[in-house]
Amino acid sequence: MIPVRPSLKELFQAKAYATLTDLKQDIREPVDTITMYVNAKVSTLMEKEILALKPRRVIFNPGAENDVLAKTLRDQGVETVNDCSWILLRAGRF
């Protein structure tokens, strides 16, 4: 887990990044999953950053659904899921 949140420096003892662009500068491995907890207005502004990371999958948690962004991601070959990450993890379906 790598947290991205502008207001934090650390979350659960992991370094937090202000933006996905900041994260991209430090990572060496491909991004498997981005889990969205922000509303559609915010995630729409993040579209270019998300696409630049080329994740395999983006999970839109309840309240974070963004049908327009999800379609754009799917058109670029990114799997999208509308579900709760914690429930997926707990059920062994993450």
Please tell me the CATH architecture of the domain at 29-90 by its name.
3-Layer(aba) Sandwich
The outline comes out as globular
Low-confidence stretches: none
Q: How many H/I helical runs?
A: 5
The biggest beta sheet, please? Answer: 3 strands, parallel
User: What class do helices, strands and sheet pairing give?
Assistant: alpha/beta
How much of the sequence lies in strands comes to 15-25%
Q: What is the fold named in CATH at topology level of the domain at 29-90?
A: Rossmann fold
Order of helices and strands: EEHEHHEHEH
- In total, the number of strands is 5
Fourth-tier CATH superfamily name of the domain at 29-90: NAD(P)-binding Rossmann-like Domain
Alpha carbon gap, first and last residue: 13 Å
Range of helix content: 25-40%
